[in-house]
Amino acid sequence: MKLSKLKSEYKSFEEKKELYDSYELFLADKRVVSLLPGLLGKPFYKKKRKVPVLMDLRGNSSWKEEI
Q1: What are residue 54's DSSP bridge partners?
Q2: Minimal CA–CA distance to 4: which of 33, 39, 41, 28?
Q3: Measured between alpha carbons, how far is 48 from 1 in angstroms, rounded to an integer?
Q4: Own/partner pairs, 28-36, CB within 8 angstroms, 24+ separation
Q5: Cα–Cα distance for residue pair 61/8, rounded to 1 Å
Q6: Taking a C-beta distance cutoff of 8 angstroms, is the pair 16, 43 a contact?
Q7: Are residues 37 and 62 in contact, defined by beta-carbon separation less than 8 angstroms?
Q8: Is 34 helix (H, G, I), strand (E, B) or coil?
Q9: Do the Cβ atoms of 42 and 26 come closer than 8 Å?
């Protein structure tokens, strides 16, 4: 998901909680991981169960193997 979609579609706490509950695992590109706590908020970082996993998702990396 692009950051712009994350910013526009998941503004309220309830929407962020719904996103949190929708998936078991979250991956984040290492280039944007520092922006995520402000965008995702408490639902993701409060329990530390679904904190986004840091990945190098650039086109030339072997991210499929890392998963």
Answers
A1: 28
A2: 39
A3: 21
A4: 28/52, 28/53, 28/54, 28/55, 29/55, 29/56, 29/57, 29/58, 30/54, 30/55, 30/56, 30/57, 32/3, 35/3
A5: 29
A6: yes
A7: no
A8: coil
A9: no
In this prediction, residue 63 carries a pLDDT of 65
- Report the pLDDT value the prediction gives residue 66, as an integer from 0 to 100: 66
For the cut 70, the answer to whether the pLDDT of residue 61 exceeds it is: no
Cβ atoms 7, 35 nearer than 8 A: no
Of 30, 24, 62, residue with least CA distance to 44: 24
Q: For 33-37, 38-42, 47-51, 61-65, which range has the lowest pLDDT when averaged over its residues?
A: 61-65
- Side-chain-facing half-sphere of 12: CA atoms under 13 Å: 3
